From TrEMBL:
GO BP term, pick one: 'de novo' CTP biosynthetic process
Entry's EC annotation: 6.3.4.2
Keywords, sorted A to Z: ATP-binding, Glutamine amidotransferase, Ligase, Magnesium, Metal-binding, Nucleotide-binding, Pyrimidine biosynthesis
Domain CTP synthase N-terminal residues, every copy: 4-268
Organism: Candidatus Magasanikbacteria bacterium CG10_big_fil_rev_8_21_14_0_10_40_10
Name of this chain's protein: CTP synthase
Organism lineage string: Bacteria, Candidatus Magasanikiibacteriota
Similarity comment text for this entry: Belongs to the CTP synthase family.
GO cellular component: cytoophidium
Enzyme class at the top of the EC tree: ligase
């Protein structure tokens, strides 16, 4: 089958749900047996998302092949239950960098290289190569930001050119917000009308409008939008109200015939066969949310942005907890705790007694580190189920060295290079990168193998002896302290044998105390919850 392309473009404001819409459309097609993949286009000049603060742009999602990408790639993987690779991720910086490198190597054979057409042609080339690599029948491309942003013009031009080349192979979906001003109490269509006309100015007519808003879209507004935004019928206006869970969205879209309408627009046969795996998962999720609950504290530092909580910094952790909780037929209640609160008021750490489990997610920098160590110490001493992810594993090792081995000045080289006991150190290659200010794309990134110790808790959870997990870090466990740690009760139960790197530590005589150098949350899927998160939730329920 010839690849069909669906562009998902945003109107009015960012963060309205383009990524979830993209993933949901993909899930619809996958449910019907199509081979689906997705691409994210980010308009920033950064080559990748790796150098950005999580508060600036949300979570950095790491792919299997080690690309540092936008968090929407994580949504694609979770909904499509497949790996998305670096070739599926485009940024303005990456595209320009490629064109300039080609010009320097005489790829253009002496031509005058210009922004138009060469940048849009590079975008098209990357989209088509990504589709070819994974043999996608349906490739869905999300254009980040909104239609009216200056930096998106060249990506929209690429989409327009693709449509011009093959009208039956390309479709456009506009995701736009319909606000309900509190002083009016009425859903307003004008912002979406404006977004549609702005898209028209780029030479693109939306085939469908996904109408996002707090409530369902009524018939008069469907008719109004269809008429004033150039759509043929009101059926092409799809209502997408707020819902309790994003995983319900594929069914909401399909119920409004979006799948059949897209098939008609792209001139492909609407396959009647439909798998029910996703439906079964959603049903299980709904049942879980009506019964018991489990309370999980997440102690970290990328939460605050002004007066607001930015949980997007840890979106993969959030989803992994949900997957594991629903698998255990319970609903998770997650509480965000800024670790600096414990530094200001140490006695406050005792509040952790009200929770069933504790997670310390990844992070960088010294801010709040002592508060995190206080929380880890409480979990270790009070049998509170604990899962430390990367940063959380490193600080768990530091805490153990300080308060069990008696190495009071133990630390990680990231925070105190003069410590006499560097429990976490840096390998020579990474040390050179830091010294040369070479930060972008230089961490230990992507999937690495790990051998598990037979009989360990994590071995029983995984059910296999060798695993592969994704990494994003510069610093490693210092093997000089390994023997003393294990003798005192913190066992090394997972190792990358190729480089003799510690990957997992596990506390003996504790209900569940596990630290991983990798990021297991990146591989958790709704249909396949990650075993370590499943283990944490089970331990939390046992405590409860």
């Amino acid at each position: 089958m010839k690849t069909k392309y669906i562009f998902v473009i945003g109107g009015v404001l960012s963060g309205v749900g383009k990524g979830v819409t993209t993933a949901s459309i993909g899930r619809m097609f996958k449910n019907h047996g199509y081979h689906v993949s997705a691409i994210k286009i980010d308009p920033y000049i950064n080559v990748d998302a790796g150098t950005m603060n999580p508060v600036e742009h949300g979570e950095v999602f790491v792919t299997e092949d080690g690309d540092e990408t936008d968090q929407d790639i994580g949504n694609y993987e979770r909904f499509l239950d497949t790996n998305i690779y670096s070739i599926n991720y485009l940024t303005t910086g990456r595209v320009y960098q490629s064109v300039i490198e080609k010009e320097r190597s005489m790829y253009y054979k002496g031509k005058c290289v210009e922004v138009v057409p060469h940048i849009p042609l590079e975008v098209i080339d990357r989209i088509e190569k990504a589709a070819q690599k994974v043999r996608a029948q349906i490739m869905i491309i999300e254009v980040g930001g909104t239609v009216g942003e200056y930096q998106n013009i060249l990506f929209l031009e690429a989409a327009r050119m693709m449509k011009l080349r093959a009208p039956d192979d390309v479709s456009f979906v506009l995701v736009s917000f319909l606000p309900v001003p509190a002083h009016l109490g009425e859903m307003k269509t004008k912002p979406t009308q404006h977004a549609s006309r702005t898209l028209n100015a780029s030479g693109i007519q939306a085939d469908f409008i996904i109408a996002r808003g707090p409530h369902s879209l009524d018939k008069p507004r469907r008719q109004k939008l269809a008429l004033l935004c150039g759509l043929r019928t009101e059926d092409e206006i799809i209502s997408a109200p707020d819902v309790p869970s994003i995983y319900e969205i594929p069914a909401i879209l399909e119920k409004q015939n979006l799948f059949k309408l897209l098939c008609q627009r792209l001139k492909i046969k609407s396959q009647s066969v439909r798998t029910r795996h996703w439906d079964s998962f959603v049903l299980k999720m709904r049942k879980a949310t009506t019964g018991r609950s489990v309370k999980i504290a997440v102690v970290g530092k990328y939460f605050g942005t002004g007066d607001y909580i930015l949980s997007d910094s840890y979106i993969s952790v959030i989803e992994a907890v949900k997957h594991a909780s629903w698998h255990n037929n319970v609903t998770p209640i997650m509480t965000w705790i800024d670790s600096e609160e414990y530094e200001k008021t140490p006695a406050k750490v005792k509040e952790l007694s009200q929770y069933d489990g504790l997670i310390v997610p990844g992070g960088f920098g010294t801010r709040g580190v002592e508060g995190i160590i206080m929380a880890i110490k409480y979990a270790r001493e009070n049998a509170l189920p604990y899962l430390g992810l990367c940063y959380g594993m490193q600080l768990a090792s530091v805490e153990f060295a300080r308060h069990v081995l008696g190495l009071e000045k133990a630390h990680t080289i990231e925070f105190n290079s003069k410590s006499p006991d560097l429990i976490i150190h840096i390998n020579p290659l990474q040390a050179k990168n830091v010294a040369d200010n070479h930060y972008g794309g230089t961490m230990r990134l992507g999937a690495y193998d790990c051998d598990l110790v037979t009989g360990a808790k994590v071995h029983k959870l995984y059910g296999v002896e060798k695993i592969s997990e994704r990494h994003r870090h510069r610093y490693e466990f210092n093997n000089q302290y390994r023997q003393a740690m294990e003798k005192a009760g913190l066992r090394v139960v997972g190792v990358n044998k190729k480089a003799d790197l510690v990957e997992i530590v596990e506390l003996v005589d504790h209900p569940f105390f596990v630290g991983t150098q990798f990021h297991p949350e990146l591989k958790s899927r709704p249909l396949r919850p990650h075993p370590l998160f499943v283990g944490l939730i089970k331990a939390g329920l046992n405590k409860k």
